[in-house]
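Section 5.1 Outputs to date
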Amino acid sequence: MEPLLRVEHITICYNGKPVVEDVSFDLKQGEILGVVGESGSGKSTIIRAIMGLLGGGGLVTRGDIYYKGCNVVDMPQKEQRRLLGPEIGMVFQDCKAALCPIRTVGAQIYESLSEHESITKSEAYERAGTLMKKIGLDDYKRVLDSYPFELSGGMNQRVGICTAMMMKPSLLLADEPTSALDVTVQKQVVEEMKLMRKEYGTAMILVTHNIGVVGVMADQVLVLQNGKTMDYGPTDRVLNHSENAYTRKLMDSVLHLKRG
Protein backbone atom coordinates (compact mmCIF):
# COMPACT_ATOMS: atom_id res chain seq x y z
CA MET A 1 0.00 0.00 0.00
CA GLU A 2 1.30 3.44 -0.97
CA PRO A 3 2.30 5.41 2.18
CA LEU A 4 0.10 8.37 3.08
CA LEU A 5 3.26 10.40 3.70
CA ARG A 6 6.74 9.69 2.37
CA VAL A 7 9.70 11.81 3.41
CA GLU A 8 12.76 11.10 1.26
CA HIS A 9 16.26 12.22 2.27
CA ILE A 10 15.26 15.75 3.23
CA THR A 11 17.77 18.38 4.25
CA ILE A 12 16.36 21.61 5.70
CA CYS A 13 18.42 24.77 6.07
CA TYR A 14 17.88 28.10 7.77
CA ASN A 15 19.85 30.90 6.12
CA GLY A 16 22.03 28.28 4.46
CA LYS A 17 22.82 26.37 7.68
CA PRO A 18 21.49 22.77 7.78
CA VAL A 19 19.31 21.96 10.80
CA VAL A 20 17.94 18.66 9.42
CA GLU A 21 20.15 16.42 7.27
CA ASP A 22 19.19 13.44 5.10
CA VAL A 23 16.11 12.31 7.08
CA SER A 24 13.71 9.73 5.62
CA PHE A 25 10.56 8.00 6.89
CA ASP A 26 7.16 6.68 5.75
CA LEU A 27 3.74 6.95 7.37
CA LYS A 28 0.78 4.73 6.48
CA GLN A 29 -2.90 5.58 6.93
CA GLY A 30 -3.83 5.25 10.61
CA GLU A 31 -0.22 4.87 11.75
CA ILE A 32 1.40 6.96 14.48
CA LEU A 33 5.05 8.01 14.25
CA GLY A 34 6.78 9.34 17.35
CA VAL A 35 9.66 11.77 16.73
CA VAL A 36 11.96 12.20 19.72
CA GLY A 37 15.27 13.82 20.55
CA GLU A 38 16.71 16.69 22.55
CA SER A 39 15.86 20.35 21.96
CA GLY A 40 17.32 21.60 18.68
CA SER A 41 17.39 18.16 17.09
CA GLY A 42 15.07 19.23 14.25
CA LYS A 43 11.83 17.55 15.38
CA SER A 44 9.53 20.54 14.98
CA THR A 45 11.36 21.72 11.86
CA ILE A 46 10.34 18.54 10.03
CA ILE A 47 6.62 18.97 10.69
CA ARG A 48 6.82 22.68 9.85
CA ALA A 49 8.32 21.66 6.50
CA ILE A 50 5.39 19.29 5.88
CA MET A 51 3.00 22.15 6.62
CA GLY A 52 4.95 24.66 4.52
CA LEU A 53 5.52 26.79 7.62
CA LEU A 54 9.31 27.05 7.75
CA GLY A 55 9.13 30.84 7.67
CA GLY A 56 11.75 33.31 6.56
CA GLY A 57 15.14 31.79 5.84
CA GLY A 58 13.84 28.22 6.04
CA LEU A 59 14.12 25.99 2.99
CA VAL A 60 14.06 22.31 2.04
CA THR A 61 17.33 22.23 0.09
CA ARG A 62 17.40 18.52 -0.74
CA GLY A 63 14.93 15.64 -0.89
CA ASP A 64 11.17 15.43 -1.25
CA ILE A 65 8.01 15.21 0.88
CA TYR A 66 5.17 13.29 -0.76
CA TYR A 67 1.62 13.47 0.63
CA LYS A 68 -0.75 11.07 -1.18
CA GLY A 69 1.78 10.92 -3.99
CA CYS A 70 2.03 14.72 -4.43
CA ASN A 71 5.30 16.49 -3.68
CA VAL A 72 4.43 19.27 -1.22
CA VAL A 73 7.93 20.77 -1.47
CA ASP A 74 7.25 21.88 -5.06
CA MET A 75 3.55 22.58 -4.55
CA PRO A 76 2.30 26.15 -5.16
CA GLN A 77 1.38 27.92 -1.92
CA LYS A 78 -2.27 28.32 -2.91
CA GLU A 79 -2.62 24.60 -3.58
CA GLN A 80 -0.75 23.74 -0.38
CA ARG A 81 -3.09 25.92 1.68
CA ARG A 82 -6.05 23.90 0.45
CA LEU A 83 -4.50 20.84 2.09
CA LEU A 84 -4.08 22.50 5.48
CA GLY A 85 -7.17 21.76 7.54
CA PRO A 86 -9.17 19.32 5.40
CA GLU A 87 -6.21 17.00 4.71
CA ILE A 88 -3.47 17.92 7.18
CA GLY A 89 -4.26 19.16 10.70
CA MET A 90 -1.91 20.68 13.27
CA VAL A 91 -1.92 20.65 17.07
CA PHE A 92 0.51 23.29 18.27
CA GLN A 93 2.77 22.98 21.29
CA ASP A 94 0.95 25.76 23.14
CA CYS A 95 -2.59 25.82 21.82
CA LYS A 96 -3.52 28.79 23.99
CA ALA A 97 -0.75 30.88 22.40
CA ALA A 98 -1.91 29.76 18.95
CA LEU A 99 -5.41 31.12 19.60
CA CYS A 100 -6.42 34.78 19.33
CA PRO A 101 -6.92 36.08 22.91
CA ILE A 102 -9.64 38.62 22.03
CA ARG A 103 -11.99 36.29 20.12
CA THR A 104 -14.06 33.45 21.50
CA VAL A 105 -13.12 29.84 20.86
CA GLY A 106 -16.34 29.32 18.90
CA ALA A 107 -15.71 32.28 16.61
CA GLN A 108 -12.23 31.00 15.81
CA ILE A 109 -13.44 27.47 15.10
CA TYR A 110 -16.16 28.85 12.81
CA GLU A 111 -13.63 30.99 10.93
CA SER A 112 -11.34 27.97 10.47
CA LEU A 113 -14.16 25.84 9.03
CA SER A 114 -15.63 28.57 6.82
CA GLU A 115 -12.27 29.01 5.08
CA HIS A 116 -12.68 25.56 3.53
CA GLU A 117 -16.42 24.93 3.26
CA SER A 118 -19.79 26.65 3.21
CA ILE A 119 -21.14 26.35 6.74
CA THR A 120 -23.28 28.41 9.13
CA LYS A 121 -22.11 29.37 12.58
CA SER A 122 -24.77 27.18 14.21
CA GLU A 123 -23.68 24.19 12.09
CA ALA A 124 -20.05 24.79 13.06
CA TYR A 125 -20.95 25.01 16.75
CA GLU A 126 -23.00 21.81 16.53
CA ARG A 127 -20.15 19.93 14.86
CA ALA A 128 -17.64 21.30 17.36
CA GLY A 129 -19.88 20.33 20.27
CA THR A 130 -20.20 16.75 19.04
CA LEU A 131 -16.43 16.39 18.82
CA MET A 132 -15.76 18.20 22.10
CA LYS A 133 -18.02 15.79 23.96
CA LYS A 134 -15.99 12.89 22.54
CA ILE A 135 -12.78 14.35 23.96
CA GLY A 136 -14.12 15.15 27.42
CA LEU A 137 -15.38 18.73 27.05
CA ASP A 138 -18.96 18.04 28.14
CA ASP A 139 -19.60 21.73 28.93
CA TYR A 140 -18.89 22.57 25.30
CA LYS A 141 -21.32 25.50 25.09
CA ARG A 142 -19.39 27.35 27.78
CA VAL A 143 -16.09 26.47 26.08
CA LEU A 144 -17.29 27.80 22.70
CA ASP A 145 -18.43 31.07 24.31
CA SER A 146 -15.18 31.47 26.28
CA TYR A 147 -12.00 33.33 25.45
CA PRO A 148 -8.78 31.26 25.55
CA PHE A 149 -7.56 32.96 28.74
CA GLU A 150 -10.74 31.83 30.52
CA LEU A 151 -9.85 28.15 29.98
CA SER A 152 -7.23 25.96 31.65
CA GLY A 153 -4.15 24.72 29.83
CA GLY A 154 -5.65 21.26 29.46
CA MET A 155 -8.90 22.65 28.06
CA ASN A 156 -7.01 24.80 25.54
CA GLN A 157 -5.07 21.72 24.43
CA ARG A 158 -8.38 19.92 23.87
CA VAL A 159 -9.68 22.91 21.93
CA GLY A 160 -6.56 22.70 19.76
CA ILE A 161 -7.12 18.98 19.15
CA CYS A 162 -10.79 19.63 18.37
CA THR A 163 -9.98 22.43 15.92
CA ALA A 164 -7.39 20.27 14.15
CA MET A 165 -9.81 17.33 13.89
CA MET A 166 -12.93 19.25 12.83
CA MET A 167 -12.49 18.41 9.16
CA LYS A 168 -11.32 14.84 9.88
CA PRO A 169 -7.88 15.23 8.30
CA SER A 170 -6.03 12.16 7.07
CA LEU A 171 -2.84 13.38 8.78
CA LEU A 172 -2.47 15.08 12.16
CA LEU A 173 0.81 16.75 13.12
CA ALA A 174 1.14 17.21 16.89
CA ASP A 175 3.99 19.33 18.27
CA GLU A 176 4.46 18.58 21.98
CA PRO A 177 0.70 18.17 22.56
CA THR A 178 1.21 17.19 26.23
CA SER A 179 3.88 19.79 27.02
CA ALA A 180 3.33 21.81 30.23
CA LEU A 181 0.39 19.63 31.27
CA ASP A 182 0.28 17.69 34.52
CA VAL A 183 0.48 13.90 34.33
CA THR A 184 -3.27 13.37 34.75
CA VAL A 185 -4.15 15.73 31.91
CA GLN A 186 -1.35 14.25 29.78
CA LYS A 187 -2.97 10.85 30.04
CA GLN A 188 -6.37 12.29 29.11
CA VAL A 189 -4.95 14.04 26.03
CA VAL A 190 -3.18 10.83 24.97
CA GLU A 191 -6.44 8.88 25.23
CA GLU A 192 -8.28 11.57 23.27
CA MET A 193 -5.78 11.43 20.42
CA LYS A 194 -5.92 7.63 20.33
CA LEU A 195 -9.71 7.96 20.09
CA MET A 196 -9.28 10.22 17.06
CA ARG A 197 -7.28 7.52 15.30
CA LYS A 198 -9.90 4.92 16.17
CA GLU A 199 -12.82 7.11 15.08
CA TYR A 200 -11.37 8.50 11.85
CA GLY A 201 -8.32 6.37 10.92
CA THR A 202 -6.12 9.43 11.26
CA ALA A 203 -2.36 9.05 10.83
CA MET A 204 -0.26 11.13 13.22
CA ILE A 205 3.24 12.45 13.70
CA LEU A 206 3.82 13.05 17.40
CA VAL A 207 6.78 15.32 18.18
CA THR A 208 7.74 15.14 21.84
CA HIS A 209 10.51 14.94 24.43
CA ASN A 210 8.37 12.50 26.38
CA ILE A 211 9.37 8.99 25.33
CA GLY A 212 6.82 7.56 27.75
CA VAL A 213 3.99 9.12 25.74
CA VAL A 214 5.58 7.79 22.54
CA GLY A 215 5.68 4.31 24.08
CA VAL A 216 1.94 4.49 24.72
CA MET A 217 0.91 5.90 21.34
CA ALA A 218 3.40 5.27 18.56
CA ASP A 219 3.71 2.39 16.09
CA GLN A 220 7.07 3.63 14.80
CA VAL A 221 9.73 5.88 16.34
CA LEU A 222 12.24 8.24 14.73
CA VAL A 223 15.11 9.37 16.97
CA LEU A 224 16.96 12.56 15.98
CA GLN A 225 20.15 14.16 17.24
CA ASN A 226 21.51 17.39 15.78
CA GLY A 227 19.19 17.01 12.79
CA LYS A 228 20.35 13.50 11.91
CA THR A 229 18.63 10.12 12.24
CA MET A 230 20.00 8.06 15.11
CA ASP A 231 17.32 5.37 15.08
CA TYR A 232 14.13 4.51 13.21
CA GLY A 233 11.82 1.52 13.40
CA PRO A 234 9.04 -0.23 15.37
CA THR A 235 8.41 1.27 18.80
CA ASP A 236 9.28 -1.79 20.87
CA ARG A 237 12.55 -2.36 19.02
CA VAL A 238 13.67 1.27 19.22
CA LEU A 239 12.66 1.92 22.82
CA ASN A 240 13.46 -1.43 24.40
CA HIS A 241 16.07 -3.16 22.24
CA SER A 242 18.02 -0.39 20.51
CA GLU A 243 21.71 -0.82 19.85
CA ASN A 244 22.13 2.95 19.49
CA ALA A 245 23.85 4.60 22.46
CA TYR A 246 21.95 7.89 22.07
CA THR A 247 18.57 6.14 22.08
CA ARG A 248 19.50 4.20 25.20
CA LYS A 249 20.53 7.45 26.89
CA LEU A 250 17.10 8.94 26.24
CA MET A 251 15.54 6.07 28.21
CA ASP A 252 16.78 7.73 31.41
CA SER A 253 14.00 10.31 31.14
CA VAL A 254 11.12 7.98 30.22
CA LEU A 255 7.73 8.70 31.78
CA HIS A 256 6.11 5.30 32.16
CA LEU A 257 2.44 5.17 31.20
CA LYS A 258 0.45 1.99 30.90
CA ARG A 259 -0.56 1.09 27.37
CA GLY A 260 -4.33 0.58 27.28
